[in-house]
């Protein structure tokens, strides 16, 4: 693995909890890696599992989906569907040969700035260990 | 006429001017386009009725009829309705942006054969775009033809294309020009009603006349019926077919209606041949 | 063209001589034979029925980049095709299908990609000795020993291969073989012809297409199309694996700022194939699409290039998931004429 | 299974005036092939058969109908469709009912208890097809191949299809009419196919699937044959945006196969059709069976058993497993 390999993480954060939690981590100067590219979605239930596959295809080395703790969901049940749906995806990706350290899911509430720091560190560390994702990444447009 | 030995590589062209013919969800925008490469501009020649694959590199291409007559100058005009991925990308182009053009493709209206005859064009909505080069060509060589009658209709006055051209044509008493819209509107002083019905009201005489029609399939069906009622023979009637196209040169296999490839044997068809192909009106 | 003999022991040396070009030959086991590059120094064993994916892939790949460009730039870069290849063990029907598809790709203007690859690829055919259950090449103008479209035809005579050069490329191969091969005597020629005769006799499935090209458009509303296509799934198997199917789709693909316009196999059995952006579809259901597929191969192609666009390889019959059988369809069409 | 009773019942149902047509199996056009039969009247029922080669899941024809736009003034023909179903096929009908893909009054289900089917590929390999028609029958301990006069008995284990070795529901779970009495179920075998891949390490698994997905020619017959893949506007056909590029390489093929398998999570009834029809012989069933096993073990849920059940992906329980969540 090349020495200066910096994993490229795509994170889908639910607007009400995790996005606010990440914002809190920022405002309270929590030092955490900056490899995470955040995409704000209105609810973790909104995350179509094909976003994860598509992100991995387009060069992400790790994907994180973070939503509200069960019971806190602004839309009551979005995170419950997400938990079941993305649980299935995690099993399928693992079975298809994608390193499980590349796809994580987390519950981060709006007040858990420190937890967001830990989740990001864990995700980036895992993706660093797993190395650059080659698997089914889209090849450079050549012939 | 093509300079590229690879028929799939498009020429680059710049949008000189662009304006909206109609607004709304299915807006129609007209582009006046000039080739960047001088040499391509010089030996490009197209005939009324032909079409070209226009598009944006990185998005795709779609086959659009060239809506200007060669007599109007060495630019090209395309009127594009916003429908899918490529046309949406085209609609975002402003004056000065780049567009790719490939062609010209397809056969064309046999205007030489029509010399000496009266030309009747019947257009509906965006269907007037392929009719416009015929109208301009006949106007430019008016003495060779026995007169020009135009019937053009759309759902509402806002959906009519080339409105300003029709306004001054209506003032010219030699050309008989009939605009129509489906439903009554205030300051609308032209006809009201569907195009096939207006055709019956105008009652053009069939002798020594050529009828050309283009528009939504439902309109073409009734126009053809009424033209027969007025006594037009099959070979006096021409129309254009439109199918999904990808290559434009008869290789990708998808544009056929029956054994006719719309990109090679069409898009212009005489009704006598079209009558034999049931798939043409599918 | 010269007719030569190659002793089977010398087959690995013959293959060894074809250096400088990538060698492709059918590999795999049982029913799933595929054309794949031959490893260095290996000589492919040529015992198989036919490959599942036809060799059309060598001249008309499933996905092919037409040109490459950077978003926002004007210059486009066309791939430079220069890799020569030799396909060993092409069946006569597949080679014949390439000769048929040449008509279309040279209709009025040549398709540059297709013909460049056709030039670069040398087809070494292997005459059939054991026809498949659904082969009917003899009914559509082909045969187990037909040389149409091939550069060199090999026929297995037991311990010798009977080599027949068909084109200059074939002659060049024989010259390259040099002393490995010797002149074929008259009795070998007779033996070869007799073997081809015998194999042709083994073909049981026949198609009587007399009168179909002219008559089939007349059956437009015949109810046979409904009954024949009722069980069709509308998948792409029969068209992707048909050696004479040539339809393709063109798409732009963008990855960051790199982009390419590429073409890929498309199937007339898919509904998007003719779907207008307005939602209108001239071939709405699988009945129309099946009717169009059969009309295209047995009538429209004949109108334009007076050859039937079907070589009777039997792949669409073998691989159709619901057993839609083109031989049965044509039988019903013939009866309904 | 008494064939005359099946044909008699089918003739009755097909002749009913509230039934458009009946879908069953009939002798194929060569060798061992069996083809779907669309029977519109009583006479047509005579060609119906039920043999160990009737593996096709006919429930796909309930959702595969493409409706022509009706000319003005013509009423849609909403008569019922009758269907012969084995155990696995009936689970597809049940799952379609759960998802409201079809309505109970649109379909007449005729159940055929299933003693276990033959894998056509294995059969053709061991007993090569010849031109003469070949019949296949069940015997008490296996199958009998009757071909040009002589019969060869074959032990059950040798030809039994993998999906049948793993089958837990040979008797139809949904039916209006049942033909013959239920067969007794057998002990479902352990699914080595899935376990074998699970035991590999990550790179081994990816190497296995990369090789398989590279052979995929994207003909979509696995999607079109599946009774539960019936979206009007499949994500693979969308161009604006193009989720999965149409170019065929292992990256897009992997995205397609993951999307297909994922969309059947908690819905797939393991009828094995996708694996049967794949022209590249990719073991697609393993992806689905792996997810089905996860759903069974972790969520205690089996799709397609009770038409009133909640769809798996559209419901949740507060105590769903969340060990994988940070």
Taking all residues together, what is the mean pLDDT of chain C? 91
Question: The CATH topology of chain A is what?
Answer: Rossmann fold
Strand percentage of chain A, roughly? Answer: 15-25%
Rounded to the nearest angstrom, the radius of gyration of chain A is 15 Å
End-to-end Cα distance of chain C, whole Å, is: 43 Å
Helix content of chain A: 25-40%
Shape field of chain C: globular
H-E order of chain C: EHEEHEEHHEEEHEHHHHEEHHH
Count of helical regions of chain C? 12
Main sheet summary of chain C: 8 strands, mixed
Termini separation of chain A: 26 Å
Widest β-sheet, arrangement of strands of chain A? 2-1-3-4
Class based on secondary structure composition and strand pairing of chain C: alpha/beta
Largest interface: C-D, 44 and 44 residues
The strands making up the biggest β-sheet of chain C line up spatially as 3-2-5-6-7-8-1-9
* Class by alpha and beta content of chain A: alpha/beta
pLDDT < 50 stretches of chain C:
none
Averaging pLDDT over every residue of chain A, what do you get? Answer: 93
Oligomer: heterotetramer
CATH architecture of chain A: 3-Layer(aba) Sandwich
What's the alpha carbon Rg of chain C, rounded to whole Å? 21 Å
Explain what you see.
- The complex is a heterotetramer of chains A (143), B (282), C (337) and D (326).
- Chain A has one domain: Rossmann fold, CATH 3.40.50.
- Helices cover 39% and strands 16% of the residues of chain A.
- Chain A is built from four helices and four strands.
- Chain A has a four-stranded parallel sheet, with helices on both faces.
- In chain A, helix 1 crosses helix 4 (113-130).
- Chain B is α/β, with parallel strands linked by helices and 282 residues long.
- Chain B folds into two domains: 11-105, Elongation Factor Tu (Ef-tu), domain 3, CATH 2.40.30.10; 118-240, Nucleotide-binding domain of ferredoxin-NADP reductase (FNR) module (Rossmann fold, 3-Layer(aba) Sandwich).
- Chain B has helices spanning 38-42, 85-91, 128-140, 163-171, 195-202, 217-229, 271-275, and strands at 11-22, 28-35, 51-56, 60-65, 76-81, 98-105, 118-124, 148-154, 176-181, 191-192, 209-214, 237-240, 256-257, 260-261, 268-270.
- Chain B has a seven-stranded mixed sheet with strand order 10-9-8-7-11-12-15, sandwiched between helices. Chain B has a six-stranded antiparallel sheet with strand order 4-3-6-1-2-5. A two-stranded antiparallel sheet of chain B has the order 13-14.
- Chain B is globular and about 50 Å long.
- Chain B starts with 10 loop residues before the first strand and ends in a 7-residue tail after the last helix.
- In chain B, 51% of the residues are buried.
- With 337 residues, chain C is an alpha/beta fold.
- Chain C folds into two domains: 3-62 and 73-202, no CATH class; 212-336, no CATH class.
- Chain C has helices at 11-17, 56-59, 92-105, 112-120, 168-177, 186-202, 212-215, 224-229, 237-240, 286-305, 315-319, 326-336; strands spanning 3-7, 22-27, 34-37, 63-70, 85-90, 121-126, 152-156, 160-165, 181-183, 248-255, 258-265.
- The mean pLDDT of chain C is 91.
- Chain D starts with a helix and ends in a 27-residue tail after the last helix.
- In chain D, the strands form two sheets. In chain D, strands 2-1-3-4-8 form a five-stranded mixed sheet. A three-stranded antiparallel sheet of chain D has the order 5-6-7.
- Chain D has 326 residues and is α/β, with parallel strands linked by helices.
- In chain D, strand 5 and strand 6 form a beta hairpin.
- Chain D has one domain.
- Chains in contact: A-C, A-D, B-C, C-D.
- Chain C binds chain D through residues 30-32, 34, 52-53, 62-63, 133-134, 204-205, 227, 230-231, 233-237, 240-241, 249, 251, 253, 262, 264-265, 267, 270-272, 284-286, 317, 319, 321-325, 327-328, and chain D through 28-31, 33-36, 38, 56, 60-61, 64, 66, 68-69, 121, 124-125, 129-131, 215, 217-221, 223-225, 237, 239, 242, 245-249, 276-277, 279-281.
């Amino acid at each position: 693995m090349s020495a200066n390999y910096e994993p490229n993480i795509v994170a889908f954060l639910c607007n009400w909890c995790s996005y606010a939690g990440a914002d809190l981590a920022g405002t309270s100067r929590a030092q955490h890696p900056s490899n995470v590219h955040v995409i704000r979605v209105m609810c973790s239930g909104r995350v179509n599992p094909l976003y994860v596959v598509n992100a991995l295809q387009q060069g992400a080395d790790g994907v994180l989906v973070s939503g509200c703790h069960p019971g806190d969901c602004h839309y009551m049940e979005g995170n419950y569907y997400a938990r079941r749906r993305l649980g299935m995806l995690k099993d399928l990706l693992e079975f298809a040969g994608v390193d499980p350290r590349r796809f994580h899911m987390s519950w981060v509430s709006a007040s858990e700035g420190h937890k967001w720091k830990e989740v990001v560190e864990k995700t980036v560390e895992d993706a660093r260990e797993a190395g650059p994702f080659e698997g089914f990444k889209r090849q450079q447009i050549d012939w | 006429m093509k300079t590229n030995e690879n028929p799939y590589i498009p020429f680059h062209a710049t949008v000189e001017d662009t304006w909206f013919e109609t607004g709304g969800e299915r807006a129609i925008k007209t582009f006046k386009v000039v080739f960047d490469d001088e040499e391509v501009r010089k030996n490009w020649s197209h005939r009324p009725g032909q079409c070209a694959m226009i598009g944006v590199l990185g998005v795709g291409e779609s086959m659009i009829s060239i809506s200007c007559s060669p007599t109007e100058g060495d630019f090209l005009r395309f009127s594009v309705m916003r429908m899918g991925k490529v046309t949406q990308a085209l609609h975002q182009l402003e004056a000065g942006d780049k567009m790719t053009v490939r062609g010209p493709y397809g056969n064309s209206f046999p205007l030489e054969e029509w010399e000496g005859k009266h030309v009747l064009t019947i257009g509906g909505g965006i269907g007037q775009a392929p009719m416009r080069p015929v109208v301009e060509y006949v106007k430019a060589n008016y003495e060779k033809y026995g007169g020009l009658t135009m019937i053009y209709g759309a759902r509402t006055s806002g959906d009519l294309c080339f409105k300003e051209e029709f306004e001054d044509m209506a003032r010219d008493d030699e050309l008989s020009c009939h605009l129509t819209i489906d439903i009554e509107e205030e300051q609308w002083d032209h006809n009201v009603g569907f195009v096939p019905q207006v055709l019956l009201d105008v009652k053009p005489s069939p002798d020594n006349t050529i009828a050309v029609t283009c528009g939504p399939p439902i309109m073409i069906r009734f126009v053809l019926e009424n033209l027969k009622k007025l006594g037009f023979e099959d070979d006096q009637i021409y129309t254009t077919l439109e199918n999904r196209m990808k290559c434009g040169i008869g290789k990708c296999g998808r544009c056929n209606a029956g054994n006719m490839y719309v990109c090679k044997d069409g898009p212009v068809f005489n009704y006598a041949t079209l009558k034999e192909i049931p798939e043409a009106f599918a | 063209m010269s007719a030569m003999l190659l002793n089977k022991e010398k087959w690995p040396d013959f293959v060894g001589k074809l250096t400088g070009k990538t060698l492709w030959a059918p590999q795999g086991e049982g029913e799933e034979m595929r054309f794949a590059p031959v490893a260095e120094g290996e000589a492919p064993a040529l015992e198989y029925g036919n490959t599942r994916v036809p060799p059309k892939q060598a001249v008309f790949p499933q996905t092919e980049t037409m040109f490459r460009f950077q978003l926002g730039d004007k210059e486009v870069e066309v791939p430079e095709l220069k890799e020569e290849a030799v396909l060993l063990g092409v069946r006569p029907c597949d080679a014949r299908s390439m000769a048929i598809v040449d008509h279309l790709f040279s209709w009025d203007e040549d398709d540059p990609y297709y013909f460049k690859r056709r030039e670069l690829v040398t087809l070494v055919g292997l005459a059939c000795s054991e026809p498949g259950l659904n082969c009917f090449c003899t009914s559509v103008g082909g045969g187990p020993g037909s040389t149409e479209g091939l550069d060199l035809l090999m026929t297995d005579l037991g311990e010798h291969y009977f080599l027949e050069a068909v084109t200059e490329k074939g002659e060049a191969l024989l010259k390259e073989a040099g002393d490995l091969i010797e002149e074929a005597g008259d009795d070998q020629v007779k033996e070869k012809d007799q073997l081809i005769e015998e194999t042709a006799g083994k073909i049981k499935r026949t198609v009587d297409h007399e009168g179909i090209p002219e008559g089939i458009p007349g059956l437009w509303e015949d109810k046979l199309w409904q009954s024949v296509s009722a069980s069709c799934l509308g998948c792409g198997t029969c068209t992707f694996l048909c050696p004479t199917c040539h339809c393709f789709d063109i798409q732009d693909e963008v990855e960051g700022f790199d982009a390419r316009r590429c073409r890929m196999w498309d199937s007339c059995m898919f509904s998007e194939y003719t779907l207008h952006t307005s939602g209108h579809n001239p071939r709405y259901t699988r009945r129309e699409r099946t009717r169009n597929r059969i009309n295209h191969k047995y009538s429209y192609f004949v109108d334009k290039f007076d050859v039937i666009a079907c070589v009777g390889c039997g792949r669409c019959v073998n691989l159709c998931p619901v057993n839609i059988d083109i031989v049965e369809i044509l039988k019903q069409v013939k009866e309904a004429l | 299974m008494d064939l005359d009773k099946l044909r008699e019942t089918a003739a009755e149902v097909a002749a009913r005036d509230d039934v458009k047509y009946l879908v069953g199996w009939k002798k194929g056009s060569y060798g061992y092939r069996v083809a779907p039969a669309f029977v519109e009247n009583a006479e047509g029922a005579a060609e119906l058969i039920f043999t160990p080669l009737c593996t096709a899941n006919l429930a796909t024809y309930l959702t595969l109908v493409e409706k022509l736009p009706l000319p003005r003034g013509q009423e849609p023909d909403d008569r019922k469709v009758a269907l012969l179903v084995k155990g696995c096929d009936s689970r597809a009908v049940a799952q379609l009912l759960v998802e409201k893909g079809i309505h109970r009054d649109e379909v007449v289900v005729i159940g055929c208890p299933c003693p276990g089917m033959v894998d056509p590929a294995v059969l053709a390999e061991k007993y090569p097809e010849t031109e003469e028609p070949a019949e296949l029958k069940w015997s008490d301990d296996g199958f009998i191949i009757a071909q040009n006069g002589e019969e060869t008995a074959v032990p059950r284990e040798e030809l039994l299809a993998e999906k049948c070795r793993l089958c837990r529901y040979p008797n139809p779970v949904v039916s209006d009419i049942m033909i013959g009495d239920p067969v007794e179920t057998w002990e479902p075998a352990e699914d080595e196919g899935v376990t074998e891949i699970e035991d590999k390490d990550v790179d081994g698994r990816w190497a296995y699937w990369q090789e398989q997905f590279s052979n995929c020619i994207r003909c979509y017959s696995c999607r079109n044959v599946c009774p539960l893949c019936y979206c009007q506007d499949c994500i693979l056909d969308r161009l604006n945006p193009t989720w999965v590029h149409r170019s065929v390489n292992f990256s897009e093929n992997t995205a397609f196969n993951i999307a297909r398998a994922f969309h059947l999570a908690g819905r797939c009834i393991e009828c094995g059709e996708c694996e049967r029809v794949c022209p590249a012989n990719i073991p697609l069933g393993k992806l689905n069976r792996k997810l089905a096993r996860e759903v069974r073990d972790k969520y205690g849920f089996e799709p397609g058993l009770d038409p009133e059940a909640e769809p798996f992906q559209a419901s949740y329980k507060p105590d769903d497993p969340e060990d994988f969540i940070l």
